[in-house]
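Chain X:
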Amino acid sequence: MSEQAPNYEAEAKAELTGKGGTFELQKETVLGEEFEVFVNRFKSLRELVAFTEMFSTQEFLVLEDRRYTFQNFKDLVAAMAKSLEQDFGIQKGDRVAIFSANSPEWVVTFFAVVSIGGIVSAFNGRWTPEEAQYGITHSTPKLIVGDTKRLELLKEVEGKVLEGIAIANLDTQFHNMTASAPDVSLPENEIAEDDACLILYTSGTTGKPKGATISHRSLIGFIQTQLCSVMIRTRAAALMGFEIPKKREQNVALGTSPLFHVSGLHGTVLMNISIGGKIVYRSGRFDAGEILKLIEQEKITQFPALGSAGHQVASHPDIKKYDLSSIKSVGFGGAPASPALQQLMRETFPNAAAAIGMGYGSSESCAVVSNIGGAEFETRPESCGKPGIGMEVEIRDEDGNVLGANQQGEIHCRSAYTMLKYWDDEEATNGTIKAGRWLATGDIGHLDEEGYLYINSRARDMILRNAENIYPIEIEYRLDAHPDIAESAVIGIDHPEMGQEVMAFVVPNNPETNLDTDELATFLSKYLADYKIPTAWKILKSPLPRNPAGKILKRDLSQ
């Protein structure tokens, strides 16, 4: 009988998370339920800010000519916190809305608020006055901190909505609000792990956005679970005999993902603050040509390929003019990436080919539910990986029964880091957080025999045609693999006999290309059953509509 091959990843996990390990785990009661948590952990985001002293001289936040080291950052956070307390009366539990474009000042303001024990209400920087009015009445901030452009929109807010709310302009008041730096220290009032620190608004693709209320524990947990996963993979590689560099270059992340979203705040800011990384922001809307320049100038190592960003950069006519060799990792998030897009990123950024990855999670889960990368992602390009450290995942049917391997159902997840609630919405909270603090994600998917998770669609996007369930993502992946297609979206539309039929929206690589829908249908028929082939088509000359998280706004397509 042959010996079983060693499981290096399991060995690395046992070493790192076992007794005495760097990421030692133990069971603790959190919000009335028992979860696995890290023994050694920060208890608040303020402790994380204090921790940055170890990176003091390294650059952290960059926007054009504004370049802040970690020491500058820590000093500015302390000074801003003092101003918030003394000039605006902000205390523990008070909400402070941030309504601004991505900037170093946004980041400083966030950490200043949470270092007091306040709660940041992260307004979507693309909101209209009507949407901003909703955010104000919903989260009732004591103070709104914003840039000039967004604060101008507040002049259109109706009635007495702004009555009693202070306003601070980051463009004109930031210097005065931080003038006491570096002569003040961080606040010292008590902050508990499960105190709320952030209201993160959902994308709002159906109805009004809901405010996922996140705790200090949740955000610290996001960092530690991600770092632990990386360390397990690194240690496993060492056990397999691969040489691991003892000193790594500073990570330099491109800060194009919005700070009012998980990808920008959690994935970019929290992760880089914890490893001494640098974040480079830019002003204005996403511009692929300007991004290419920035990659070369700042030696960007981490590129976030959310939504159509990856394809826009890869297909830019001037791409050959720029040195992109600094890119060492490419991350997907917000929505699954098609295998065709994954391969395009490997070809565009060859030095990152071994570090293409994605994480699946949500505002509500806070911590990453599952992640996958490298060779594993190449082998299973349609999977979003195995559940993360401290995360449990189940697939359930409509009656709440747990399903077995390869059975489709709603994805449920559970960890110590799940949101506390939806702000001021008990009904929505109860409909999403089930008994045992299991989170119903609203996504349809399955787990295979080896525990890999696959997402097929949002529950509301599933198409029912002649009693057959059709998952749009399966069709979209195939369309995206067509050589003349840049991106696609599939929805169900009403049909008098079959209930629904399949409609595809397709964006060609070149606006001058005339796509033949009969040819596209023939192309799909090689891979898909007849009932999955679209019977209605629309060829678009502009990119698909997306929200700031990169998710396609299918309701806009259906109108």
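Chain Y:
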Amino acid sequence: MAYTNFKVEIDSDGIATVTWDIPGRSMNVLDQRSGEELAQIIKQLTEDAAVKGVVITSAKEAFCAGADLAMLEGMNRAFADMLKSKGEEAANQVLFDRCRELSQTLRNIETGGKPWVAAINGLALGGGFEVTLACHYRVAADSPKTQVGLPEIKIGLFPGGGGTQRIPRMIPTQDALQVLLKGESLNMTKAKAMKLVDAVVPAEDLIKSAKDWIKAGGKAVQPWDDKGFKLPGGTVYSKAGTMTFPPANAIYRRETFDNYPAARAIMSCVYEGLQLPIDAALRVESRYFAKILRSKEAAAMIRSLFVSMQDLNKGARRPPNVPPTKVKKLGVIGAGFMGASVGYVSALAGIDVVLIDRDQASADKGKAHAKSVVDGLIAKGRTRQADGDAILARITPTADYSALKDCDLVIEAVFEDRKVKAETYAKAQPLLKKDAIFASNTSTLPINSLAEEWKDQSKFIGIHFFSPVEKMMLVEIIVGKNTGDVALATALDYVRQIRKTPIVVNDSRGFFANRCVLRFTAEGLEMLMEGVPPPMIENTAKMAGMPVGPLSLSDEVALDLVLKIMKATEADLGANAIDQAQKKLLVEMVEKQGRFGRKNGKGFYDYPEKGKGSKRLWPDLGGLQPKKLDPDTLDVEELKQRFLVVQAVEAARTVEDHVITDPREADVGSILGFGFAPFTGGALSYIDFMGTKKFVDLCHKLQGKYGARFQPPKLLIEMAAKGETFYGRFPPKKPASVAAA
């Protein structure tokens, strides 16, 4: 029988090799057709008496990247249609049956009586990894590219093809929960040590090793189908089990604050499933999966963290009329922490970098930062010495501006001061080649005003990195009123080269990310001035879904920098543009108390010397509060709402101001840039999924109690009256047809 996505060959020993190879795709995904064909192949090979065993592998560089999310979205649409036409009971049954299909298919591998071996080459993630878990033996290629994992939790889902039941039957429960709840990929050293992979062999021996296991009498029965099977972590109510689930529940609450339905479902699936035979346990998993698939959190996270992010990474905002560009040589002016980090990530991507500072010692210090990062990776076994040396060889530190003459792109990362930047531009501009693009890494100063120092403003653009550059995946590209398409295309192509996610925004003070996140930190200061206990401020922010509290984030940014930005805004726009009470607090902290934040070990928190304990809120902070409120009288839900609403309403204002023109960029940018509660799908999705009318009503309620910062913009009020959403009113454009090189 011929298949579209698989090729089946049976050798003279009666061993069938099933090769997964979806036409026209760089990676295999578990889509509708693959699932249907795999079910047919299992049936065919099970019924063929001549077949002694089966090896499943891939013809591509990876085994399988996971389930096709478009298929899952289609299942949700079918549920919605059925709900309208035949009611909830019928719709629930159809969705449950669909969610069971893969689970039953993979169960047929286990119970078909023929030994199956997964020959894993490259990535095997999500549903792809679940296919291998159903096989009786797993052999993997010895390569850094070979990784396995179940990352579904990162997009609001959980493994629905048996992963929540097989993993805890293979490894101790506490380890299984880590694999399921963290969603991290495992290299082969770790996967083999955990016994999730049985053998690791040279890539060229992969298929031979798989067949050899079958020829040697490989058993066609899973351990959990054997009569005497015992759970590796003990039963739920054994001594080991009672020592696992209570602390696991506590950790779950601490890490998620119950904001992620999929994480709760994983806990329930494992807890309930381990008390049941495998077939009943798989039914439990399918029920939870059907429920989570319908959740707004899953819909929001899939849209923003998978579909939208993929579109932006592929060049959704790239001008289609510009041919692909590639930065071969990059100039970075300013070898401080930010500039040095930009130089490092660029060199890591294979780009030659010139790192310039006021003197050779300062430039050398910038390269030393890159060396410290490389040394750390080598020490952890994440890169080889030769590869690290190659990265460093691509970075040339110098004080000589003439080194910029053959750079394709130059990024300025000097101090956030107009005069300093203007002096830098005056030195660099005459030395650049004719078609070079110049970018500023400014975090708040408007690009239009900075571009006034530039002769050809079409070649001037903003490229705003987030700290720490090595870890932060977002890059904000700021387009000025005179920025040309070539500059925009070059910036987007460069961000793609360094493997980060770009968002494109129009110019304004603070652009998008800083406008929103400064509302978050300012709200924390507002609460401090109101008399809310500092620990309560920090904890309710984290309960709302933010990664850290506003006081902690202010310390990370640096309080002296926050004060400097505040003073610059006041100088440019007047005293009413800032909160004078907050300015007074920061003047006290910075200028009188000498508390600059983490960088000098004291801010809103006291920071211990390295390796000597954890940070603690400054004990005297309460003394700076004009009054103190009784925590028992405060509405925790309202405090949580204030943190999210104040950022979301600012995101709506950026749409009204035409800073954001594509809702995907606000959502992806808010999550990647400043950690806006990921379970919401981002700042605009938070509004969309709540409903614009309900959100506007909440804004008015908070405005009445706390002031004009919660006032919804006219655009939002108009949308609420019409029942519109951001994705409905501003439908995202398709990715550009011309992709970057």
